[in-house]
Amino acid sequence: MVDLSTVIAGVPLSNVFFNAAGAWCQREDELQALLDSGAGSLITKSATYEAREGNPTPRYAPLADGVISGGGGSISSIGLANEGYKYYLNYARQFDVTRHGKPLFISLSGLSLADSVKMVTAFAQAELSGCILEINFSCPNVPGKPQLGYDMNAMDTTLATLAPLIEKPFGIKLPPYFDMAHFDQVAAVVNKYDNLAFVTCINSVGNGLAIDLDTERAMIKPKNGFGGLGGRMILNTALANVNAFYRRLAPGKQVIGVGGVVSGKEAFLHILAGASAIQIGTQLMEEGPPVFDRVKRELESIMEKKGYNSVEEFRGKVKTL
Ligand SMILES: O=C1NC(=O)NC(C(=O)O)N1
C-alpha cells in the first residue's frame, strides 16, 4: 500500500483528494455524501453574507468529447448560489473533526470587503477546530463583479485586512494566470502574509463560451452563455499554475491543485507539478462521490508501478529538459 496522506495548513488529511468548492457541497446532504465518500476532506460551497439564488438556469453544462476541441469538460455560471455564511458557520460549529476523521474547509466569497470582514470575524470568533478557510478571490460569474484575483493591488489590500483577522493558517482560491509577470506579482503578494498557508490553483477558466452545433445556441443561459470552463480541457493550464506558484511561494507555503483531474493520472501530474492536495470539480459533478475511491485506486496503482511509496517522494519533482 502506498501513502496518499498529506498535511494542509498544519491539518492532517487521510488522503490528498477532496471536492472543489462549488461541487457537491451547497447543502448538508451533499456534504454528508462527501463525508461518506473516499475523500480525505471536504469544502463547502463559497458562502456570501446573505443566501443567494444565483444565476438563471441552465447554468451548468457538461461538454462531452467532440462538442468542443480539446475533449471534454464543463461550462458553468452558477453565480455563487449558496445558503448564506451562517448556514456554513452552523455546520462548522457542529462538525466533529475527530468523529469524521476529515478536516472541514470553508470557502468564503464576500461580495464586498465589508462582507468578507464580517464573515471572517464570525469564523475566527467561533474558534472552530479542524476548520480551514479558503477565501475565494476568483468567482468569474457574478455579473458586474470582476475577479479580485486579477486585481493585484485589491488582492493585497484585502489580504492586509483579512489575514490579521484570521490569525490561523488559511488559503485563497486563485483564478488561472497566463503571464509570467502575473505569476511573479501574485506570488510576491502571497509571500507577504505569514498565515497565508496555501493557494488553490485554479478556479474555472473564466468566461468561456460553449455553443451547440445543431441548435446554434449557447449551452448555458447566464451572461449570453459566458461561463467558467472546467474539466479535462483546463488540465494543462492548471498544471502550469500549480507549478508556477510551487516554484515561487516561500518555504512552507503550499499549493492545492484543481483543474482537469478525471483520473489518477492527472492527480499524479498535479502532485508532480507541486500540489500538496487535489480538488475535483467537474468529474465529481459528472460521476458523483464514488469518483474519490476510483481516483485514489488509480493514483495508488500509478505510484506502485513507478516505485513511489508516498506522495512526498515525487511532489514538485517535475523534470525539465
Ligand atoms: O468561484 C466560482 N467559480 C466558478 O466557476 N463558479 C462559481 C459560481 O459561479 O458560483 N464560483
From TrEMBL:
**Segments forming domain Peptidase A2:** 31-75
* Similarity remark: Belongs to the dihydroorotate dehydrogenase family. Type 1 subfamily.
Q: Which cofactor does it need?
A: FMN
Q: Which GO terms describe its molecular function?
A: aspartic-type endopeptidase activity; dihydroorotate dehydrogenase (fumarate) activity
Question: What is the name listed in the Swiss-Prot or TrEMBL entry for this protein?
Answer: Dihydroorotate dehydrogenase (fumarate)
Query: Cytoplasm as a keyword?
Result: yes
- Biological pathway: Pyrimidine metabolism; UMP biosynthesis via de novo pathway
Primary location recorded for the protein, binned into one broad class: cytoplasm
Q: Which UniProt keywords apply?
A: Cytoplasm, Flavoprotein, FMN, Oxidoreductase, Pyrimidine biosynthesis
Is Transcription set as a keyword in this record? Answer: no
**Pfam families registered for this protein in UniProt:** DHO_dh (PF01180)
Task: List the catalytic activities from the record.
Answer: (S)-dihydroorotate + fumarate = orotate + succinate
Q: What does this protein do?
A: Catalyzes the conversion of dihydroorotate to orotate with fumarate as the electron acceptor.
Query: Cellular location of this protein?
Result: Cytoplasm
What the entry lists under PANTHER family is as follows: DIHYDROOROTATE DEHYDROGENASE (FUMARATE), DIHYDROOROTATE DEHYDROGENASE (QUINONE), MITOCHONDRIAL-RELATED
- Name its GO BP terms in alphabetical order: 'de novo' pyrimidine nucleobase biosynthetic process; 'de novo' UMP biosynthetic process; proteolysis
Which species is this UniProt entry from? Absidia repens
